[in-house]
Amino acid sequence: MSAMIDEAPSGFDWTRPWQLHPQVSLRPEPFGALLYHFGTRKLSFLKNRTLLQIVQSLPDHTSAENAWRAAGVEDGQAAAYQRALAVLADSTMIVTREDA
Q1: Contacts of 53 (CB under 8 A, 6+ apart)
Q2: Structural domain of 48
Q3: Superkingdom, according to UniProt (predicted)?
């Protein structure tokens, strides 16, 4: 386990590889982005550009932690991004990848 986060909220495993759900469309906006899930008809907002960068880079990394570190998120800020990603996972906006 990483020293910065001891447990993952709501079963979100930040050590696994993640990606946008295939039925999710992402639209960048000045404030961050809009996510729309065509399967569930849910709409989500990414409230900042760093979170957008993390979500867009998830397929390029072997874990969510690697994605937020690559985006420059400091250890003291990581818990907030982990919670945001956990919410996206709980709503199936992002899903785990099995290829890594």
Answers
A1: 71
A2: 9-95
A3: Bacteria
Share of the chain above pLDDT 70, in %: 88
List the end-to-end C-alpha distance of the chain, in Å, as a whole number: 19
Neighbours of 80 (CB within 10 A): 14
Domain of 59, CATH number, reads: 3.90.930.70
* DSSP one-letter code for 40: T
Contact between 39 and 23 (Cβ < 8 Å): yes
Based on DSSP, count helices (H) and strands (E) in the chain, helices before strands.
3, 5
DSSP conformation class of 7: S
Residue at 1 is within a domain = no
The answer to the question of residue 3 being in a domain is no
**At 6, is the pLDDT very low, low, confident or very high (cuts 50, 70, 90)?**
very low
Helix (H) or strand (E) holding 73: none
Q: What is the pLDDT of residues 9-20, one digit of tens each?
A: 566 899 999 999
**Number of domains observed in the structure of the chain:** 1
